[in-house]
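Figure-free illustration: sequence to structure, shown twice.
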Amino acid sequence: MNERTLPSGLHAAGGRAHGNTFVFDNSLSILNRTGAYHIAKDLIREFVPGWAGVRYWRLGSFAPEGLVRKIVARLMMLEINWLGDSEAFLIRDRVGASGFRLFLDPLYVLRSSLTENDIVLCHDVGPLTHSDLYDERTCSNYRLAYEKIRCVRPGVVFVSNFSASHFELLFGSDFRFLKTIPLYLRTELFDGPAEAVPNASGPFFLTVGAFETRKNQIAALRAYRDGEFHRQGFGYILCGSRGAGHAEIAELAATVPGVRLMGYVPDAQLRWLYANAEAFVLPSLLEGFGMPALEAAYMGLLPIVSRGSALVEAVGGVCLQVSPHHPAAIADAMGNALLRSPAEKAPTGRLLRDTAAAATKERFLQQWKDLLITGG
């Protein structure tokens, strides 16, 4: 990988941007309100306006909310779908020859100028490696975006080594730089009192994550059913926002005794769920990082996750790894988690807490500062 100095808009002595030589493209936040949105918000809060400018698609620094955001999101996607990577009507930033943009998602390079000086944040390459989990339009748009990135070869930052390795398999390493900056635990989730979930009695397994095909709740539900854990007195609680695949997940869950789908839960109840579950189950088919597993680790809750995935990386390998395609293997791991004695649980819980405690926002932001000061 090539080593270069930071464009002259930032200086090592304090690292401040002059004018608009450094611009965050935060178009992601118009459309995406998942974990990536919170990461983008924290980066913007840290670096704007002291270090950089920010823009939201064609709205400049205006961050739309409510109904306006939904309308703008529709218009932005219409433009991306219609124009793709066309050079016509690109968004032109006044960053100058030595300036650069930091794109908080690869998709948004399509409607912007892209130079070798720029930086792109990549959460995963799922639309390319797991196209069966996405609609064809999404896959087509991301193929165009990654092809543009491949041709220009800017700096690329990844949220996990798992995502970085998959990117390199597809595109090689001949970019201005390739760097992993792992995500951090949002400890504010655990601030404040816990609130017991009504009518949640007895021990239970827990899954936290959007109800989407890629999260693989179907396999986890089959594992719980086939393992006959309900007959052993163990329930299964799943919570998260609705996504593509929710209907199929809900249909199966309705047929399995002991399962409870809760949808979105407030932080106080989520704290209680993490604190009282027997084990955390997420045999996901694709993750860029795996924040729920790290949240579970923070509470000392043993994660049961997909073998060799970003989820394993997120918890430092302190987990039970399973094949996401085999419910019987997932059921075996769930059973093994229940067989642990208190003496076995204690050291694992300490390791998990230590791993999660090291993933601080301060470390994350400092790594970004170091990157921007040195230029990669």
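We now fold a second protein in the same way, so the two outputs can be compared directly.
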Amino acid sequence: MERHDVVTAVEKALSEVLEQPVTGLTEEVRLFEDLHLDSTSVLEMLMALEDAIDVSVDPENLDMDDFKSVGTLTDYVLSQQTTSGV
């Protein structure tokens, strides 16, 4: 999966979680500071991403650094796809 596809999937997942359209994200957008996510909304977003792009996330192995920005989340998702063989 390409980076652009992951960012698009993140936009869709965020739109579901935040219950409002989220478009035009750049990799510099900060999830907590700019989008005002909290730990619950991050978990909801991860579940939506799991369904959308068939990636498996183990909450026990999450590192908050992976959620600083759209770019770091994209890196995380891509690394999970590699390790899960997708």
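Summary for the second example: Residues 55 and 77 are 7 Å apart (CA to CA).
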